[in-house]
Amino acid sequence: MSDVVYAIRISHLEYSGLKIMDIKIGKSTDIDNTLRQYSRGNRDIELLDMWTPNPDKTLSTAERGVHAVAERYAYDKQSEKFVFLQGAYQEFAETVNMLLQNVGREDLTAESASSESDDVDDYTGTTPSVIKVLGETHDVDSWADALTVGVAAILRDVDDHERITEIDGRTRSYFVEEGRQSDLFKPRRIPDTNLYVETNFSANDCVRRIEQVIQRYEYDLTSFEIFTQEN
Question: Can you give the pTM of this predicted structure?
């Protein structure tokens, strides 16, 4: 599995309508093993959120950054354990979501399966220059641009645009209709549609989102090519 910074609720209680949560925030290279370790002492644990580091951040750097954010919202702190009151945790998580990529267990499973395949390309540390989708060639200058342009090219070739909104993660939407773009962290309008796409993704995730859209509309993945240059 991928490296993640996690937030695990290890205990909670309610007193006079006030909800208090003890949350452990740390880093892990195997979240399943980490959860097993915590569950030995407490069966009531709950994995609340996971974040993967940005391409230019190490796991330790990302963890320190999340701790710094947590200190702004937590009522108390003891090493890696933070005490949050009521909605303070949600505010903390939403802030971190703007800085790091929030992922679910199924995202990590899919990424792990992909990384085990010899023919999977790694686009980390590169910048896209040209993408070719369904026979059309487009110049692009960023991964957010590649994602938006690539998806727009596919949607121009189909009638059922709403089907794309079925592609999402466990805790976040990837594509939403106009009016719901506030649900996304870094929304960008898809040209010639009333849809918005989330662009808060790594290079590899941008490519994966395009491939998901291609497969959703039953096109062949060979109809998609991307050309990059080293940063």
Answer: 0.54
- With 0-12 / 13-18 / 19 or more C-beta atoms within 10 angstroms meaning exposed / middle / buried, residue 190 is buried
Domain carrying residue 55: 4-115
- Residues 154 and 218 reside in one and the same domain: yes
Per DSSP, the residues of 106-154 read HHHHHHHHHHTSTT----TTEEEEEEEETTEEEE-SSHHHHHHHHHHHH
Structure tokens at 225: 């090519």
Residue pLDDT, tens place only, 180-197 = 988 888 999 999 999 999
Inter-axis angle of helices 105-115 and 203-216, nearest 10: 100
Single-letter amino acid code for the residue at 13 = L
Q: What is the mean pLDDT of the chain?
A: 87
What is the b/e burial string over 79-103, where b = at least 16 CB atoms within 10 angstroms of the residue's CB?
eebbbbeeebbeebbeebbeebbbb
Tokens standing for residue 158: 């189909």
Tell whether 120 is covered by a domain.
no
Distance CA 35, CA 12 (A): 17
